[in-house]
Amino acid sequence: MVVLEVLSKLEKTVRLDEARWKHILEHPEMANQRDKLKETLINPDEVRRSTYDASVWLFHKLYTNTPVTTKYLLVAVKVLNKQGFIVTAFFTDQMKRGKAVWRRKL
To answer: Is residue 102 included in any domain, yes or no?
Structure first.
């Protein structure tokens, strides 16, 4: 079952299924963060291509108000053709390494 479907900033349809959502919720601070997850996909600060898997894009957005202080929300999306699916999502202190695909203009 699809829990979330959104058109990302990079014009790819991204889906989150129930199994991946349960995986994400293994991080207790991710409870009630579905709106932030969606916002990160639609309006990220930066998107990077993973150094470990070129088909995984790392969407980052800085939030000052999270359950774990000021953190980036990282949403990892596996992209196949014009579609993507969320692999995982979690709060982190810094953006993960990878080649920048898109950056917000300051």
So the answer is: no
